[in-house]
């Protein structure tokens, strides 16, 4: 029996995420080191799907850029994707494990996981890992966004931001989120949030990756410096 292929080979290119450094001053209760993350990821639910966006900079602790084409959004389900901030190895394992679970579920039950089931599965898999993912997807009930963390919590929301640029990104999302917006409007808001964070957060930048998720599937596209990203307003820019 052949399991559905959700692009496992994509994990081979996931090396581009930030190489996080251990905190020198803080320890969690059981003595394991905490991690500082450098990235900006966002997700917004729209009337007809979900949009995710992430910057493309890989850095060493936010001080040195090691890669300008990092891929931080990965498909894990026919109509869902994970955006990751955190340590590289655990993030790779989380993506592979989530893909394997969704493939096995579909093979056994002959239908894809609902987003509620997928979020609970991902919440279990992420427990204890030094990553802070955002899960987004579409099912028969519409678009969904979930915030996950290493403690195993799963929080449903209409929009979310994560990583070192999240404070700036949330400022944009709070101002521009429209629960009745179509995918085009949600894309504009998501790109604007990542670009705003990239202006202020030294660990974020070098373009935007946009994932558009609908009932038809997941489309992921990268846009160099972000100038060609969907919804970018170029009014007032001087053309050389």
Q: Could you characterize the architecture of this molecule?
A:
- The protein is α+β, with helices and mostly antiparallel strands.
- The chain has a single domain (8-23, 31-223), classed as 4-Layer Sandwich (Glutamine Phosphoribosylpyrophosphate, subunit 1, domain 1).
- It is built from four helices and 14 strands.
- A hairpin with a 5-residue loop joins β10 and β11 (154-157).
CATH class category name: Alpha Beta
N-to-C span: 57 Å
CATH architecture: 4-Layer Sandwich
Shape: globular
> Helical element count?
4
The structural domain count equals 1
The largest beta-sheet arranges its strands as 12-3-4-13-14
CATH-defined fold name: Glutamine Phosphoribosylpyrophosphate, subunit 1, domain 1
Primary descriptors:
240 residues; alpha+beta; Glutamine Phosphoribosylpyrophosphate, subunit 1, domain 1; five-stranded antiparallel beta sheet; 14 strands
Summarize the structure.
By secondary structure, the chain is of the alpha+beta class.
SSE layout:
Blueprint (H helix, E strand, L loop, with lengths): L21 E6 L5 E3 L5 E6 L2 E7 L2 E3 L3 E4 L5 E5 L2 E4 L4 H22 L5 H12 L7 E6 L2 E7 L5 E4 L1 E4 L3 H11 L6 H18 L7 E7 L2 E7 L17
Antiparallel strand pairs: 1-2, 3-4, 3-12, 4-13, 5-6, 7-8, 8-9, 9-10, 10-11, 13-14
Helix pairs in contact: 1-2, 3-4
């Amino acid at each position: 029996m052949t399991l559905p292929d959700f692009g496992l080979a994509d994990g081979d290119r996931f090396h581009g995420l930030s190489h996080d450094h251990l905190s020198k001053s803080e320890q969690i209760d059981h003595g394991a080191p905490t991690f500082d993350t450098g990235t900006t990821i966002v997700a917004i639910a729209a009337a007809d799907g979900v949009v995710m966006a992430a910057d493309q900079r890989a850095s060493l602790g936010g001080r040195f850029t090691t890669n300008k084409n990092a891929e931080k959004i990965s498909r894990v389900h026919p109509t869902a994707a994970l955006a990751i901030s955190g340590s590289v190895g655990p993030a790779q394992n989380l993506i592979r494990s989530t893909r394997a679970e969704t493939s096995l579920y579909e093979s056994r039950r002959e239908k894809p996981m609902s987003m509620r089931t997928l979020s609970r599965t991902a919440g279990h898999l992420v427990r204890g890992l030094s990553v802070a993912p955002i899960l987004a997807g579409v099912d028969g009930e519409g678009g969904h966004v979930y915030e996950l963390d290493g403690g195993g919590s799963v929080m449903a929301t209409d929009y979310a931001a994560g990583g070192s640029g999240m404070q700036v990104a949330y400022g944009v999302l709070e101002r521009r989120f429209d629960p009745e917006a179509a995918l085009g409007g949600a894309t504009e808001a998501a790109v604007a949030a990542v670009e705003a964070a990239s202006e202020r957060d030294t660990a974020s930048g070098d373009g935007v990756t946009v994932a558009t998720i609908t009932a038809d599937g997941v489309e992921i596209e990268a846009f160099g410096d972000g100038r060609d990203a969907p919804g970018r307003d170029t009014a007032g820019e001087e053309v050389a």
